[in-house]
Specification:
This protein is mostly helical. The protein is built from 17 helices and four strands.
Length: 336
């Protein structure tokens, strides 16, 4: 048994291990090539988050999905590079929107160079992803465009908030399906499609990716409250400080509205106050970490991970399927 990937994924087959490791190494090389520019400053900014590391969650899923076809097909690695470049570009933009100071354990691009450079660097990465995508064919371009539309729509809906009468938790889960699930679904879809897997396997893996993507984001919501910066690679409570609704906070608000417990109402009042104050922010974090709403968010993470696992049932039993099932456990483990 060999451990590879971002979560200590156990691979029980030497051939699968070799394919996955070789694929991820090729993706890493492809990311560095794709972020080079004739302007040294652009190269430095574009490679800032590439060189900071990261889980490479999406490329890993693409490599595993490719096992249901021919993983050596030439389009697999470039497609995985496209998905990771798109993800990296969204991080540059997210950090500007969130005014984040830290990303992947280093200064965020907006902290180091300012918002304008961070936004334009994200745009540069989108352009490079599109350039690679053009060589993968019109179907790949269409799939990526649809996923990117869903991603941006999810971000806009998150910013706009739920409409009148809409349950905030259901609205949020819809946002997560678009904002996070769509691109992780594409990672699985591209891996299988480029490898020539049959259409039914491509469909199964796409559905798996979306559900796993939601679980992955919900685990991040838990980490934003429950982890320290060493564990998560970014400042704890960043979403909290910026007033971004996350699942534990939404569950807290729902419980406070339903039960009217004084301690819950008091915590909501603290949340609605000025969380730029470090002492107030620390107090909210401390109380949320001990609140049942955090456990509810963990249970939701488990539910989506289990739905992802169940989706894989039609696939043939093999080491790659076992690895994808273990990814569900790994995502849940992140949420504690």
């Amino acid at each position: 048994m060999t451990v590879v990937g971002p979560f200590g994924l156990s691979v029980r087959d030497h051939a699968l291990e070799a394919d996955v490791q070789a694929g991820l190494a090729a993706v890493e090389s492809g990311l560095l090539d794709a972020t080079k520019s004739g302007v040294p400053f652009i190269t430095e900014a574009a490679q800032h988050l590439v060189r900071a590391g990261g889980k490479r969650f999406r490329p890993l899923l693409a490599m595993l999905a490719a096992q249901f076809g021919d993983p050596d097909t030439p389009g697999v690695v470039p497609a995985a590079v496209v998905v990771e470049l798109t993800h990296l570009a969204t991080l540059y933009h997210d950090d500007v929107m969130d005014e984040a100071d830290v990303r992947r354990g280093v200064d965020s691009a907006n902290t180091r160079w300012g918002n304008s450079v961070a936004v334009l660097t994200g745009d540069f990465l989108f352009a490079r992803a599109s350039h690679i995508l053009a060589d993968l064919g019109p179907e790949a371009v269409r799939i990526q465009a649809e996923a990117f539309e869903r991603l941006v729509t999810g971000q806009i809906l998150e910013t706009a908030g739920p409409g009148d009468g809409r349950d905030p938790v259901e609205h949020y889960l819809d946002v997560m399906r678009g904002k996070t699930g769509s691109l992780i679904a594409v990672a699985c879809r591209f891996g299988a499609m480029m490898a020539g897997a049959d259409e039914s396997a491509v469909d199964v893996l796409t559905q798996y990716g979306e559900r796993l993507g939601v679980a992955f984001q919900l685990a991040d919501d838990v980490l934003d409250i429950a982890s320290d910066s060493h564990e998560s690679g970014k400042t704890p409570g960043t979403d909290l400080r910026e007033g971004i609704p996350t699942l534990p906070v939404l569950h807290l608000r729902a419980q406070a509205a339903a039960d009217g417990k004084p301690e819950d109402l008091e915590l909501v009042e603290l949340l609605d106050g000025d969380l730029s104050d470090d002492a107030r922010h620390a107090e909210v974090l401390r109380r949320l970490r001990a609140h049942p709403a955090l456990d509810q968010a963990r249970r939701d993470t488990v539910r989506y991970a289990e739905e992802a696992r169940a989706t894989l049932a039609p696939l043939p039993e093999c080491y790659a399927k076992a690895a994808l099932e273990e990814m569900c456990d790994a995502v849940v483990h992140r949420a504690g």
